[in-house]
Amino acid sequence: MEQRLINKQIVLGVTGGIAAYKSADLARRLREAGAVVRVVMTENAKQFITPLTMQAVSGNPVHDDLFDLTAEAAMGHIELGRWADVILIAPASANCMARLLQGEANDLLTTLCLVANAPIALAPAMNQSMWKNTSTQDNVQALLAKGIHIFGPAEGSQACGDVGLGRMMEPVELVQQVAALFQTGCLSGKKVVITAGPTHEAIDPVRFITNASSGKMGHAIAAAAVEAGAQVILVCGPVNIATPAHAVKIHVTTSQEMFDAVMSHMSECDIFVSVAAVGDYRCKTIATQKIAKTAATMTLELERNPDIAASVAALAKRPFIVGFAAETENVVANAKKKLLSKKLDMIIANEVRTGMGGDENAVTVLWGDQQVDFPKMTKQKLARKLIEVIKGANNAT
Ligand code: C5P
Q1: 324 Cβ below 6 A of ligand 1
Q2: What pTM was computed for the model?
Q3: At 184, is the pLDDT very low, low, confident or very high (cuts 50, 70, 90)?
Q4: Which domains are seen in the chain, by residue range?
């Protein structure tokens, strides 16, 4: 199955040309392939297809104005440019290509193309004479030289009655072309088990001991592993985050349940990523009735929970094991100690205040005698980079 577009954030630019009627089908197909689509329309595009149509098929508000106060407050042009994993302009008119080449920023779409670091791909669509024109051809060569991808155009009969090169590539082929811009399944055929979130250790029927883990990093790693083609089992403590498409989630509450679920999925497991903030201690006895607050002080007797990552490392047939270390001080030194004491293959360390609970994280990855630092970025982007590092290190073992 084609998984490369799962969770990919695509800005679909629509410019003014009759092929814009196919952009609705394209948006739908991109979503079916797992992508999140945000449509940006030029003024001319709206002559051919309505924003309402594009909004309905993309499932997101359509962006069409650089100076719209409400739109800018919701997701501004800079944010939208950074949001994009790829910008696909389909159809791309001759005018749009000329403007992109000049680096113009006089509407939302061209401005986004200047903001974004993401790859830009164009699906030209125009009359065959316009396509053949040396000005257009010069622009195409110059755009290619800038690293902009050009998909098509296709040959055939045109809306104006001409026959020749200039038809927009069909949506089904465009989806394949966009998918090909992303890394192919580097974990294809691998089984990856991931833990995420906190655990709850009951004190009585209504109270429990837990920690501040949001589960976001674990979910991002699971999504990135799915994108890379892995079969993903996500063993997750109590958090309310949607399961990444195509991952299998096992809900657990306590550390012991997490331990049992992980162990029951270790056969044929290739990579185990222990992202969860597992409760280190549990109550020695759990009160069967709610404890009344009569005493001025209260003492809980706690006992150690099994260390899941270390237990996986002790298995005779063990997967490649990646741990996480959230530290408040001596981040790298403490992480290194955990890497060795738990006999992990790799550890990903972060400073607690940088990562916990938020949407971004900055980490240091340690394995063998190697170290890689990743600066602060969204957990989604970071997760993809981590999957690449894990894959590389796993291959080397
Ligand atoms: O809690 P600690 O800092 O030791 O966690 C480091 C790594 O060990 C993390 O990957 C965490 O998921 C894992 N761990 C575990 N079982 C525990 C405690 C921690 O798998 N009981």
Answers
A1: yes
A2: 0.66
A3: low
A4: 2-181 (3.40.50.1950), 191-396 (3.40.50.10300)
